[in-house]
Fold each of these.
Amino acid sequence: MGYEIEGQAAMVTGANRGIGKAIVEALLKEGASKVYAAVRDTSSASGLTEEYGERVVPLEFDLTKPELIQKAAEVASDVSLVVNNAGVLKAATPLSADAIESLKFEMDVNVYGLIRVAQVFAPVLKANGGGALVQLNSVASLTNFTDFTTYCASKSASYSVTQGLKDLLKEQGTLVVSVHPGPIATDMGHTAGFDEIAEPPELVAYGIVAALKAGSFFDFPDSMARQVGAAYESFAGNVIEAEMTEG
């Protein structure tokens, strides 16, 4: 069963730029009544509030700070959609001197942050009819890019957590969507050196909209993502989305 955006309140983390900003705008265009723009610095969402007025509500938020996540859930108690878009990236191979420090940093945001959000907001979504939880996981969760090994490892872990959430939250009627973009034209993509092959963040935003409407677990929104998704399709269908039993 799909999720209908029109008339619903949503929260998007990392909403002030790049993919997050595109998601906010796509949700509003699809008829969301309100979007909480969850960002570290609320002033960074001023462009959104200037354009969309009271339909965008800046919310102080940090995936590494449980107290802010809890406070956000108290303020955004009316949401039926949570899009966890925020994430971090470090350039580190397994042999980099700072590999372990990089991985710790990325795990704290990309993995522990997801768990913190899910633990706090799952009851909110349940109270509001189930709704949906969307997690940005990247094609890097499915394959390794050597220069960004620690990032890939963190995204593989967040994807695994997302699978667990899919099964757990199904019981309360919450749709979980796992999004796997390739190179996207964002600040993170620029830092990673993907400018020549990066595609617009709007592709991710409208991929999420389509996945929500269709009730799909997977979203592979851009050219590289679709290529990876096509290769992964058989395994995903027969293992990840199948009803697996022991014995």
Amino acid sequence: MMEDPSSKAEITRVLKVLEVLKQASHELQTHPSLDSAESNSPAVKALLELETESDTILSKDPHLSTLSQHLATLKSLVATLEQSCGHGLRSFLTRRVSTQAISRVAGSIEMEIQAWIDRESIESLMKGLKEPSQTEEDELVSLLSQFEERVSQGFNRELQDLVLKSKIFCLLEKIVCDPSCSKKVREQCAFVVSALIKFNKDVFVGQVLMGRLIHGLVSMASWKSIKVLCLLIKSIKSPLVDEIESNGEIPKIISFLDYKDLHFRVVAMDCILEIGYFGRKEAIEAMLKEGLIKKLVELQRLERGDLINMGMLDHERENGEGEKRLLESHPFAGCVARFAVQLEVGEGLRQRERRAFKQEILKRVREVCASDAEAATIIAEVLWGSSP
């Protein structure tokens, strides 16, 4: 940590220098040739220039002491390489070994730089999360976005240790569940949680299932929060759907289909389809109990009316690409059959439960349709769309 951690200007200055060095180190590893390891190459030149300035830039932070050592080693290796300028076998082998050693040291330099950046970014983010009302909204959202991007780069044990030690997950969950916080910040916190699940599902899934995050996402009632819920369902699968059902959140999710905002309804439909795919018997029963089929029939009726008026229905279904375009422009077309297919091919139900729910869907379609013709059309779609 810096001697004066409150000095943003000093941290920013060091960060800019280290970002340049990180790029130079990466290039040196990516292209480990004799020419790229010469002292006049851009990558090595940038690294050696910092080594000469290490007293003023690196000595202030004990976390960067190892980086100073690596830079000193690099300088020594480059000097050895330049001294072995002969054409004999021994000189060639010395240069080859030195080049490989330089590449390894460059890798260590990059790791040390990234570790420093991770520590500083998490520390800054933690300060913002602990006192969100004292932090500019855009600044906190930016910090969250940067952290999400870093986590999305893939698993890193050192980064995971920092995340666990900081207990940042608890703060993210707290903000997601706090209606007094900015909605923009809450949504971005939710996306960070989703990124952490992808980062290491084994470590963070338990915290999702045991906490109040699911309720926070549903109660936020925005298309972004429900999109995150969809992502979590895809990652955690049936156990998360079990929690959604046991927490009594399904009625609220079904009610989102009544919202005026089209994009929100589309995301809610995606969430319902994911629940249908991974949900066990209790979850599917809860959805049907909330009148899901009636809502889907009504949505499909509106879509079908628009498509018929536009003369698009048969034309758009001539091939797979047409079907894709149809769903993009009319997301509720055939939604009853799509839901039935999710149950049929999904992971949550036993075979006899699939058959029973299919019959239940057909029964409810007959009950809620406005005419025999409408019922016949939707029933045909369900029977045609589901596998035998």
